[in-house]
Design a protein that fits this description.
It is a single chain. The chain is α/β, with parallel strands linked by helices. The protein has three domains: 214 residues, Rossmann fold (3-Layer(aba) Sandwich); 139 residues; 150 residues, DNA Methylase, Chain A, domain 2 (Alpha-Beta Complex), CATH 3.90.120.10. The protein is built from 23 helices and 14 strands. The strands form three sheets. Strands 1, 2, 3, 4, 5, 10, 11 and 12 form an eight-stranded mixed sheet that branches. The protein starts with a strand and ends in a 10-residue tail after the last helix.
Length: 579
Amino acid sequence: MEKLRVMDLFAGAGGLSNGFEQTGQFKIQIAVELDENAKKTYKTNHGSDVEMVSDITELHYRDNNNKLKKKFRNIDVIIGGPPCQGFSNANRQKNTLISNNNQLVKNYLRAIEEVSPRALVMENVSSMGSKKHKFYYCEDDVLELENLGIIPETENVKIGDKTFLSEELITLIVTSANKKESLAPFLLDKNVFSKLNTVLKKSLKSDDLINYFKNNRNSYYFQKLLLIWDSLVSACWSKTYEEEWRLVHYYISEIIFNKCNVYTKQLYKSLKVIIETQKVMNKVQEVYDNRILYEKLLFINGDSLAIRLKTFSVLNYITKKLDFLGYKINDDKYIFNAARYGVPQNRKRLILIGVRKDIIKDKELALPIPLFNKEEDYFTIYDAIGDLEDVPPEIEVVRSEKLKTSFPINSSKLNQYLNGKELILYNHVRTHTRDMALKRFKTLSQGQNFHDLDDSLKTTYTDHARTQNTVYKRLAYELPSDTVVNVRKSMWIHPIKDRALSIREAARLQSFRDNYIFKGNKDSQYQQVGNAVPPLLARVIAESILKSLGEEVSNTVNELLGNNSNELDGEKITNTFSI
């Protein structure tokens, strides 16, 4: 058969594309990715004939005559994982109401609508179906939601904490709204706001604040800012607000120039009012800018300021939109655990698989058949990286290529698959380990994490209790790993060596084979690996699409890594939400 042509949106380092290509029956024609280092990785592994596009928002599918451009006419499959942070009232750290990343979901759907591929795959976090992932109802949505039969829900959305200035602030904003006036003149520059917000957090502890201003860069920035303080004050909307602003100037000046730390609590009190006021005004301005429809603008709700508006579920919108566009999708079985498909990692992801109704007709949509039904049968961390145990990683990326001195583990199909026939070991690079980190490494046994440390080894963390269980995790050889994220930031530890996990080891846990080479600096490579879709999971998804399209599938993942039993081949998926 002629290879099916693929467009990969939000391609990242190319894990999803790699899985499709491994079948030998797909060819990547266009890939869209904004990150420069990820693009380098993608180009290195997927060939120079793939057209790379940076920004999906600037992708135009039609010419001046409104005809589909030639390069999009022969796209058979669109795949991708649009970022979607979701909106959550519980997330009090957010300084904005709307994440631009959420709009990227709509850009993915726009590609489906314009190109009308034969099949599609959309990958996302498993929580995308939860209530925290939603869109705000805006003027542009009214007609579309009516066509899709979606009824938005009314919700009180917190946009800031209540302060003694709240009543006055409400009057200002409601008056401005009635006059259709922007709040922009009252908003601080984003960089200034960010710096002040950092100072607010540091002022919770006197020592943290003093140390922050001991940093020459921070001190110099605020010395310059203090010189233009009056020009920032000129935009104040109230005498009371202006007084708080001048008090912040005084306290910061005393701390920087006179090394006086007695004003820490006063600084926090005044700066808290400034920051909360700015948060509220900024979020209300976002409502204006995004034409979000609201039932009640800015009111006191307990200890918070809130807006009453309407929201609708991201997942419900996506599934109804795809149905409207003519696709049969797996709308009731969409959570996949990568460990069941050969990936040595418990990684649950939401994956929508769709085929055009005019192609699949009355046939059932084929879904991936798991390799394993029991957790005890999952591939383990040892299967993935056991052969690299005695191969010391480099510290610097420039020295990352070395001759292989290890051999595949004969008893492990996965290890043989990942190891391949490569003579060079790429990306076997780890982060530098400082003295405190090394002490922690030496204390922890397999399966333990930060919370198992003695309190004397937790002193660099402000709030021990809030530290996640995956931080300073010593991996256990006999188990699959937890969900791989950026293992450098999480400080994952090798099962038996007192060192951080290398980029190559993390890539193996993601099921990248050794012939897949990552580019960019060390931090970027760790991040690329953590963001990727595991290629093995992508491969079984690609196989299911081939089956739905009526194509023969050869050399399947089950044939490579499974037990090849008839029972497995005939397995019937019964779990509604997780397969």
